Amino acid sequence: MDLQITDWLSLTLRWAHIIAGVGWIGASFYFMALDFSLRHRSGLPHGVKGESWLVHGGGFYHVQKYMVAPEEMPKDLKWFQWESYATWLTGFALMSVVYYWQADIYLIDRSVLALSKLQAVGISVGVLVASWLIYDALCKSPLKENQTAMFAVLFVLIVGAAFGLGEIFSARAVFLHIGAMIGTIMTGNVFFVIIPNQKIVVADLKERKIPNPEFGKIAKLRSTHNNYLTLPVLFMMISNHYPMTFGHPMNWIVVALILPIGAVVRHYFNAHDSGVHGAGLRWQWPTASLLLLILMAFVAWRPAANETPAQAAATTNDQQVPDLNDQVFAIVQQRCGVCHSANPTDFVGAAPGGVEYDTLDLMKQHAPQMRVQAVISQAMPPGNLTEMTEEERTLLGAWIENEVGE
Ligand code: HEC
Predict the structure, then answer these.
(1) What is the pLDDT of residues 70-99, one digit of tens each?
(2) Cys bridge to 109: 88, 139, 170, 325, which one at CB 3.0-4.6 A?
(3) 337 lines ligand 1 (CB under 6 A)
């Protein structure tokens, strides 16, 4: 009996992580929309910045926002913090199961840097901690007065991190880390800044002191950062299923394009919610679409090494095909068979994704996926554990082109 413990842990944690994330991001979107929809009118109670009417679930809601707080502490107060903490905790647990526990497969790529498991995990945790410390220091520096400059600096730091991590980890782990770093910053904002400040305000209220409005302002700045970072984080988290993105030799450029695409789309919703009409709403989708097209074109274009399968195929004529079959079968058994087999010999409990290459027919059936994972990108073998060579990838590419065509 094989319990497949890591798979079950990873599945249940992923499930929990997505549920928590939906709760957090859902609440965050809702409150951003609410903030933008606040309108001022005369006759609002003292301290109310604006109010909003909402309709949902068979009734009308009438919400008023006090800035920074009402004069008296309300009897019942609902806090929104556990959505964020639960997202981070489940995310970190999932990362530990997949990337730390199975560091050999997912985190380390010996052709990039021959790290020990302990070193790799140490660097990974260090990177998460450092990203929070650096971000937090930036938010307290004079940069906080200039939103645009702050976003520009964050952009450069994130893209720089993608480049730097590319020299340390497997490509797949680079994207996951960019997502985890931004996610850590977002939860850090909630845990270290927004909620503690809110608690000070509540304590002041209880003592009937007037709270310092600065706390409200700081919290708002941080939650605006969180707002614009949400969509890029989600991309980084799901990109792991798409080797064309993280597996690109210059994957940091993919990150550089995803950041503005996510932010611009988010901006559309913010503008829409704050009541902007006409021209103010017309530029975001075209800009995001254009950037996405640029991204697609960039991913389709690849530096020289990846042209070779096509060239090799051009020189392969039909008489060579049987020979090529044998060669490629041997390569795949050696480089992929330890994991992708009905009886995997190492590393995994069962063939990942149900992909088995035990016969030539099975290989043919999965040929297009093979091209994506092992020829166009080098996502497989993970971390090049089985030390597949460039020539072998070229041959595999040529064989796939013979089998399925372009
Ligand atoms: C050390 C074990 C290992 C080796 C060797 C390996 N793979 Fe994988 N493969 C995995 C794992 C683990 C996954 C699941 C990755 C994920 O969760 O996204 C995977 C996923 C895949 C997938 C995607 C399956 C899906 O879910 O759609 C393909 C295709 C693939 N591998 C092809 C290959 C090819 C081709 C080779 C040989 C060149 C290879 N793999 C070598 C472990 C391995």
Answers:
(1) 888 888 889 989 999 999 999 999 999 999
(2) 170
(3) no
